[in-house]
Automatic annotation (TrEMBL), chain A:
<feature type="transmembrane region" description="Helical">
    <location>
        <begin position="51"/>
        <end position="67"/>
    </location>
</feature>
<feature type="transmembrane region" description="Helical">
    <location>
        <begin position="117"/>
        <end position="133"/>
    </location>
</feature>
<feature type="transmembrane region" description="Helical">
    <location>
        <begin position="6"/>
        <end position="22"/>
    </location>
</feature>
<dbReference type="InterPro" id="IPR004299">
    <property type="entry name" value="MBOAT_fam"/>
</dbReference>
<feature type="transmembrane region" description="Helical">
    <location>
        <begin position="371"/>
        <end position="388"/>
    </location>
</feature>
<comment type="similarity">
    <text>Belongs to the membrane-bound acyltransferase family.</text>
</comment>
<dbReference type="Pfam" id="PF03062">
    <property type="entry name" value="MBOAT"/>
</dbReference>
<feature type="transmembrane region" description="Helical">
    <location>
        <begin position="408"/>
        <end position="428"/>
    </location>
</feature>
<keyword id="KW-0812">Transmembrane</keyword>
From TrEMBL, chain B:
<protein>
    <recommendedName>
        <fullName>SGNH/GDSL hydrolase family protein</fullName>
    </recommendedName>
</protein>
Amino acid sequence: MFFNSIEFFIFLPIVFGLYWLIGGKNIKTQNLLVAAASYVFYGWWDWRFLSLILFSSLVDYSIGIALGKNEKPTTRKTLLWISICVNLGFLGFFKYYNFFVDSLINSFTFFGSELSINTLNIILPVGISFYTFQTLSYTIDVYNRKLEPTKDFVGFMAFVSFFPQLVAGPIERATNLLPQFSVERKFDYRNAVDGLRQVLWGLFKKIVIADNCAKYANIIFNNHTDYNGSTLLLGAFFFAFQIYGDFSGYSDIAIGISRLFGFNLKRNFAFPYFSRDIAEFWRRWHISLSTWFRDYLYIPLGGSRGGTSMKVRNTFIIFIVSGFWHGANWTFVIWGALNAIYFLPLLLANKNRVNTNLVAEEKYLPSIKELGQMGFTFLLTLIAWVFFRADNVTHAFSYLKGIFSESLFSWVEIFPSTILGLVFFFIITEWLGRSGEYAIEKVDFINRPIRWGFYLLLIILMFAFTGEEQQFIYFQF
Amino acid sequence: MKKFLKNIIIFFLLALIVGEIVVRVTHTMSDIPQRVIDENGIQKYYPNQEGYWKGGDHKWSINKLGWPGELPNSYDNLIMIIGDSYIENFMNPNDCHQSAFLKKNMKTFNFMEAGRSGVSLIEAMEISKNLDSLKPVKTLVYVNNNDFYESIRDIKPLQDITQVNLKNGTIVYGKMKAPLFKKILYNWKLLYYFYTRFPLNNQSENAEAPTVSEAIEENNDILKSKSEVFNLINYIKDNYFIKDKVFVFHPNSNTEIIEQCKNLGFNIIVLDSSKDDKKWVFDHDSHWTCYGHEQVAKQISNALLK
């Protein structure tokens, strides 16, 4: 079930009504309703894969209990590795099996030998990368004694399958979300209104910005040899806003819906395109994944402690693994490596935490320097996005070659002024609202007629500019 | 919770009002004329209505006889034009109608259109029988393959389309399908917008709306239900005055149907778009554009003048 579908617009009010009216103040009933609704939500796509979530929940719940009872380090370590192997085993099989087989065959062919292994026709379960990481965070945190193992299986099931963020995040930490399933949840008017507002903004990002930019990004990327350099750059620009609108839009909807049910999820995006350097960009882009890798991979590897070679190694590992998490394709690996290359000079010069504050804080306009920094950082991400969007490595290099040609300085061959106008409106709104958790959070302080008028404007724009409905990009990851 | 629900409901109602205003002002949805069934069982429109086509670029109008388009200045030397949504032609302005183009090519004749979306061949024959009182010198009946199939109750009974029961030779007149629902739907523009935008099922694009997809070209080389179709043609020959009728076949119509009509003595014109580099139909709609109508009229006037 997609957030931008009719089914969901029927599903949500029903679940909301049942949750508050029947669930009332009884946590167990509420948790049961959340778990049931989440299974319906996921099963709507393909009910067969519900067994995968259920199995994953059972394994990690049992291992959590066992970890709570065992004090012996070797047994605890074994239990942790069972959880890691089961979760990553599923992920590896469904997501990476064919990639590894293909890569192995290609390697053998390269060295002149033939290898015969069949690839499988595997359906990738939607959101597997997200809920796998979420359940892993539970076991690791219990192992590290940061969290008490839960004894409430229904609550745990609801945590693993929590429908607002099940298929595309934010990847919640067990330490943040799981305890919320065991405390009384009361309906809070301000929280619910704020949640709805965030849902509205998320839908606008997805339907108006992402889907409309997708149309032109697809045209340009799919026919890149027909266009000049400036048009190819515009294609990358459209993709940059497609992926941002799509993914951060989904996160906004997920966070907003969770608030309707009395849950608070972690922020996932913090206006990343207003970053002044790549380090800041990565503190603002897909925060839940970046911090996951930081806490469960980068720091255990030694982090930025140790010598230069250690820093370089760990940076490459975390960025490449992050790229690979996105998909079984060398383009994602290169995208990750490229970001590591962007990031390393800042890390080695100890300048990776220079820009931790809000850009042009309490000012309407940025300084020339800040504008230049933001522009340059955006340009770097744009180049990296080419690898992320390209079908394969050859496509990406051919696309970049097209951009950096003489024709970069000729006029664009496609100029959808209305869509560019919408993107401009979007950027201005995000800029004005950058001090909030999401762009229109502060609208709450404007008087009601103007506020409601603004909401209506967004809704009208959604209907007027509904692009061709596109699946959320991050569903495939 | 009460305050939340109250505000949601108020906002929802406000959104409905604003949405309705926006849809009406911007003509997001076409205005749909209201229908009536006359004393002869023919579905037509209430006379003297007018409205805007989607986008508001042009208006359609219903004349005093209840058919779309303008009436001729005189009924002398009249050529009648009968057909479905292609002739109804709400998607083009009046000067892009068959009557306008044919009048340009055949100045000594007058032309009158009687078109309505969803008209089957048998209903077109019934309409022509009723309009014979105007003493037309010729009646052009525009047909495609579906018009034959949909006319035959023995193949598939359709409640809202006039059909013939070939077993007992009776005409079963079409009834209005959900008239109250349609009245509400077409007057509540925002609801109509949602209804067409998010159809409840694949069939919800109803036959009455001007954007019908009835003419989607199928594999026309294969004639389905051949004996029934041939029986229908025989039935028409036996029960209607066909001497002054001309069947205008859409491009790519089934050759067996065309041959059978020809063999039984029907006057026919077969349209051909294959030699034209330019498309006759809209990009997202199988109906003829203004250019398409002009080309159709050119081929028909050439054939008639011959």
